[in-house]
Write a structure and sequence with these properties.
about 80 residues
Amino acid sequence: MTKEEILNDLQPIFQDVFDDEDIVITNESNAEQIEDWDSLSHIRLVVAIEKQFDIKFAFGELQDLKNVGEMIDLIQEKIEEN
């Protein structure tokens, strides 16, 4: 799965989790740019991503990610491990 395909699959997840159809994410998108991105929505986002891609993140694996692009890299690694 390409990074672009993952980004395209993430788009509706972000729109659903943050209840905002106008959100458009890019590789540079981060929590500071999305108004309602707090700890609870982060958990909902992670659960939705795990379900969508049939992957599991290890505890703490996401905390050092700086933006959506780094998240996509991690998702791609997880998909390739399966």
